[in-house]
Target: CoA pyrophosphatase
Amino acid sequence: METLAGRAVTRRVPPPLRPPATGGRSAAVLLLFGEGPFGPDVLLIQRSRHGRNHAGQPAFPGGGIDPTDDGPVAAALREAREETGLDPEGVRVLGTMPELYLAHSDNRVTPVLAWWHTPCAVHAASPQEVESVERVPLRELADPANRLGLRHPRGYAGPAFRVRGLLVWGFTAGVLDGVLSGSDFEVPWDRSRLEDIPPDVLSLSSR
Model:
């Protein structure tokens, strides 16, 4: 897992996700890997359908960096605790990925990679923000049957995953795709499998 994290930390940022010279809200997300009952997994949340940004989307725990946070690592761990009940004492931070920019929400996001050496029970600890919490096995994410591309009406497309009742797409799927790429978990999949973003999903995301 540390090798997987190391590759992610040094991965170059694609042009569409490069932050602008100025502006944007500083934020952080936690990519928390652990050893679950079905092998190595990653912690994901399903955001509330009533949220203002990225409503209803699967995501990594995270949010804005507050003035009282000691940087992105502290912010990611705090948000994960607030959203899932995670005990930060059971987490070892491995590093951070380069800052990524989400134009839709004007967020400059630092992904924080960590190892869950002492897992604890997690749940939707903040129902107004989170509908559910899921530990998703990496082998299920890498399974070709669970992989596809999603096409936006504006013409661009990106990677996606259908796993554990979740449709993971957008920023979260892009980061997961990058983490899996070149890893021991990567399995060749049909990249010509392309679908339109479901209308209900698109409607929620366009808020």
About this structure: The chain has one domain: 2-205. The mean pLDDT is 90. The first strand starts at residue 25 and ends at 36. The chain has five helices and twelve strands.
